[in-house]
Write a structure and sequence with these properties.
Order of helices and strands: EHHEEHEH
Strand content: 25-35%
Strand order of the largest sheet: 2-1-3-4
Number of strands: 4
Helix content: 25-40%
Largest sheet: 4 strands, parallel
Length: about 90
């Protein structure tokens, strides 16, 4: 079974997602090893349940971001800070 992966950007410039996409053809190999279940580059409206790994880019800069961060934590096995804004 492939791990379910999500990526999220909160308050920020989306530069980390753009850098992620710069992996070019390595993304094809990665896509074969995981199931992308939520991302700003995919047309999914609601954050799903039972996500294995969520990469979070950007800072919590409003109440909506805080609510989404709590939802992500409840529904993700692992949450990984993705980039400077999320880490800070």
């Amino acid at each position: 079974m492939k791990p379910k992966v999500a990526t999220v950007w909160l308050g920020g410039c989306s530069g980390c997602h753009m850098s992620f996409l710069d992996m070019d053809e390595r993304l094809i190999e990665l896509a074969g090893r995981m199931e992308l279940v939520y991302s700003p580059i995919a047309d999914v409206k609601e954050f799903p349940r039972d996500v294995d790994v969520t990469l979070v880019e950007g800072a919590v800069s409003c109440d909506e971001h805080a609510e989404l961060a709590h939802l992500i934590r409840r529904n993700s096995r692992f949450v990984v800070s993705f980039g400077d804004c999320a880490v800070s």
